[in-house]
Design a protein that fits this description.
Blueprint lengths: L3 H24 L12 H16 L4 E7 L5 H12 L2 E4 H10 L6 H9 L6 H13 L5 E5 L5 H11 L4 E8 L3 H15 L1
Parallel strand pairs: 1-3, 1-4, 2-3
Length: 190
């Protein structure tokens, strides 16, 4: 297995098959390049720095998705109570920014919301990033984002490797139940 011919074939396979994966991680800002040609101790010193300074300190993000009335907010409150997450609602952040008289994006956000359109992704992502940076927490539930593929692409473009996306909690609920909940909410909130 470790003759020169076999080794060269393994290298060729590595370059052809594995390098594209590495490039993909690099494009997402989730690749740390380590000079592995040094001594074992030197390489591990570099690895340890990356783990301690970058990987373990990355804020953790869990996207929370589901239809209106699916119970996202209720379950986020439970998760916050029991697991030390911070709950960030994209909608709440957008409304606060829209209502801030000093906001440079307030009128733009208002026009998008009043027309029922999705606010430009860069605005929403930057509001979420600022909220994360101003928090003392390191684990975040992001409620109501991403709402479409452009949001996912925008998150990757703007945030890159600044966070670790753990995945998505999807609250799958029949429309009839969501409708009943929303109508009930309307009765109690006016």
């Amino acid at each position: 297995d470790d003759n020169l011919n076999s080794i060269r074939k393994r290298f060729a396979t590595y370059v052809k098959e594995t390098m594209p994966i590495i490039n993909s991680f690099e494009n997402e800002g989730k690749c740390w390049k380590i000079n592995a040609g040094e001594s074992v101790e030197s390489v591990y010193t570099e690895v340890r720095k990356i783990i301690v300074n970058d990987v373990l300190k990355l804020p953790k993000v869990l996207f929370v998705l589901g239809g209106p009335g699916a119970g996202k907010g209720t379950q986020c409150a439970n998760i916050v109570r029991d697991h030390n997450f911070e709950h960030l609602s994209a909608g709440d952040l957008l409304r606060a920014e829209r209502n801030d008289p000093n906001s440079k994006n307030g009128q733009l956000i208002e026009s998008y919301i009043s027309e029922g359109r999705i606010v430009p992704v860069e605005i929403t992502v930057n509001l979420l990033l600022n909220a994360m940076k101003n928090s003392d927490k390191s684990k975040f539930l992001i409620d109501g984002f991403p709402r479409n593929q452009d949001n996912v692409d925008g998150w990757m473009r703007v945030v890159g490797g600044q966070t670790e996306v753990l995945g998505c909690l999807f609250f799958d609920c029949p429309e009839s139940i969501m409708e009943t909940r929303l109508l009930g909410r309307g009765k109690t909130s006016g």
